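Bit of a strange request maybe. I'm writing a small parser for structure token strings and I need a real example to test against, not something I typed by hand. Could someone generate the tokens for this chain?
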Amino acid sequence: MGVPVTGRQGDLRATCPYRFHEALDVFKWVGEVILGDSDPILVSEVGFLEAGATTDNAGGDDVGRIDMVLVSNKTAKGAPMKWTALEIQAVYFSGEAMRGEFEAFNDASVDWTIFPAGRRRPDYRSSGPKRLMPQLQIKVPTLRRWGKKMAVVVDRAFFDSIGEMDNVPDISNADIAWFVVRFEEVEGGKRTRIVRDEVRYTTLERSVEGLTGGKPVPLPMFETRITEKIVHPLLNQDDPYADQVKQAESGDSSVAG
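Reply from user aminoacidic:
Good idea to test on real output. This should exercise your parser:
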């Protein structure tokens, strides 16, 4: 029988972005902070980028959308629209597929609580640098030119997985507002609820540094690594071409490009 993980590693993580829609509270929170309106209008999947004309296509199709746009209900008639963009990011998981669990959910004869059966782990590298960061790099520069902010909603575990970011004290100097939530157990119930935890303001550049989650090695160290691969090219187990090089040096013509 498995032993529950304790401490910070035992904290709940959201693996589905829809989990953040509970009672629409995060949208009210973002509206309060950025728009001064706790009851904004929610508009989803708004086309943001259009394809240019190509040899085979006249262009004009949406090739990029903003997940959610919050529009203030307090905009005076005739005044410029007051709105903010919002991205929600849950964590992906790596490990065994969940087909077995879903089949059990759909099986009417299963009348017991279904627990995860596979070995899985949160994959913050896929969720942050590979998914969220490109979205911010594409969208935020245009939003910045328009004078608009990007709100990003994540849970505490996700935010803590991000590298250190320099904060700015006021939203007027920020490109991105990070809205961090956590999950707490409902007293007397067998469920959890979303709780507002923290808001952080950053620039796009500092957010990219944090999401990258790594620091460049010094130039001498990098060049030493190059030298080691030149001197011992076949000793590098992670070199995908090592076997081909070895066969080519032995005169095996079957590996020729």
